[in-house]
């Protein structure tokens, strides 16, 4: 991608900026060479203006040169799980979290947090201690936003064809984020489903089980989305959040990448 890489980020809301109570509509980011910044900006603007959550009246786009060394990661191995109902999907998600090593009481506390009205509309992830189930990030409704990550489009398409996955930006972004999160030694598992009312698929991911895609984790029309990271040790929280938010990561797939599922 050349000698210099730039991080281009977008956030869009309706009813004013997020920090003034605006409803989150869309967000995204791209890592690109300088000559590709304009295309990246155009792609992010199109994403914001065509989102199913509504038409934004606030949008912010910024870019900056990446100063830190870029870490290259192979994408998590992927498994597609087809379920017949949201209930079956959520039961499978809980089963997969237990397989990752998350105790049942912590899973129950996570779902209690999900059900609380104050957590509806969170823009980032909640970090929960894997053993206690207590939230440890102290970020309120903002949560922790994973940033500075991308996957070369051509390389992603080769991967998607081989894996028989949709060649969509949504899938690309989800795998990229899940891979970055799972690569940190403090993470035990991630649970996520989108706030897009037209997208009901979600996932559980970790280094141990890979990216487990679940076809139904909410009902159509539901704008509530959640992202939860179960972490091992709250003592290293600042270091972990710095990695998620600041350290640049690029995915690269090769056909002979070893699968990482036990």
UniProtKB/TrEMBL annotation:
Its EC number(s): 6.2.1.14
Q: Where are the transmembrane segments?
A: none
GO terms of biological process kind: biotin biosynthetic process
Pfam name, any one: BioW
Pathway-wise, it operates in: Metabolic intermediate metabolism; pimeloyl-CoA biosynthesis; pimeloyl-CoA from pimelate: step 1/1
Q: Which cofactors are reported in the record for this sequence?
A: Mg(2+)
One annotated GO molecular function is: 6-carboxyhexanoate-CoA ligase activity
Please provide the record's keywords in A-Z order.
ATP-binding, Biotin biosynthesis, Ligase, Magnesium, Nucleotide-binding
The catalysed reaction is:
heptanedioate + ATP + CoA = 6-carboxyhexanoyl-CoA + AMP + diphosphate
Protein purpose? Catalyzes the transformation of pimelate into pimeloyl-CoA with concomitant hydrolysis of ATP to AMP.
Q: How does the record describe its quaternary structure?
A: Homodimer.
What the record says about family reads:
Belongs to the BioW family.
Q: Name the chain's protein.
A: 6-carboxyhexanoate--CoA ligase
The top of its lineage is:
Bacteria, Bacillati, Bacillota, Bacilli, Bacillales
């Amino acid at each position: 991608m050349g000698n210099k890489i730039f991080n281009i980020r977008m956030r869009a809301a309706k009813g004013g900026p997020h920090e003034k109570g605006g409803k989150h509509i869309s967000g995204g980011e791209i890592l690109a060479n300088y000559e590709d910044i304009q295309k990246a900006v155009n792609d992010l603007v199109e994403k914001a203006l065509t989102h199913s959550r509504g038409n934004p009246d606030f949008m912010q786009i910024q870019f900056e040169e990446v100063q830190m060394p870029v870490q290259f990661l192979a994408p998590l191995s992927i498994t597609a799980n087809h379920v017949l109902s949201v209930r079956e999907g959520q039961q499978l998600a809980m089963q997969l979290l237990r397989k990752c090593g998350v105790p049942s009481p912590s899973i129950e506390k996570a779902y209690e947090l999900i059900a609380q009205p104050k957590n509806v509309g969170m823009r980032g992830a909640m970090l929960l201690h894997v053993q206690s189930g207590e939230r440890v990030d102290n970020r309120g409704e903002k949560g922790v936003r994973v940033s500075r990550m991308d996957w070369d489009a051509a390389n992603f398409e080769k991967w998607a064809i081989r894996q028989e996955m949709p060649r969509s930006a949504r899938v690309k972004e989800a795998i990229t984020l899940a891979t970055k999160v799972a690569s940190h030694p403090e993470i035990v598992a991630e649970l996520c489903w989108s706030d897009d009312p037209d997208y009901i698929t979600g996932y559980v991911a970790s280094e141990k089980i890979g990216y487990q895609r679940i076809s139904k984790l909410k009902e159509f029309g539901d704008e509530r989305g959640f992202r939860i990271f179960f972490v091992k040790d709250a003592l290293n929280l600042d270091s972990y959040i710095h990695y998620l938010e600041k350290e640049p990561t690029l995915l690269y797939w090769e056909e002979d990448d070893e699968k990482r599922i036990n």
